[in-house]
Amino acid sequence: MRKELVINATPPETRAALLEDGRAVEVFHERRGRQGLVGNVYLGRVHRVLAGMQAAFVSLGLERDAFLYVEDAVPHAVDLDGGEEGEEGGRASGATDRPRIGDVLVEDQEIVVQVTKDPLAGKGPRVSTSLSLPGRLLVYLPGVPQVGISRRIADEGERERLRQVLEAFGGPGGFIARTAAAGATPAELDADRQYLSGLAERIRRKAETASAPALLLRELDLTLRVARDLAGPDFDAIRVDDAHAHARLEEFLAAVAPSLAPRLQLDDAAEPLFDRYGVEAEIENALKSRVTLASGGSIVIHQTEALVAIDVNSGRYVGKEDLEQTVFAINCEAIPEVARQMRLRDLGGLLVVDFIDMADPEHRREVFERFEGELARDRARTRILQISEFGLVEVTRQRSRGNLERVLTRSCPDCGGTGRVKTDLTAALDLRRSLLRSPALFLPGDTVRIRVAPSVARVLIEGDPPVLQDVEDKLRVGVELVPDESLPPGGYSFD
Question: What class does CATH assign to 41-216?
Answer without folding.
Answer: mainly beta
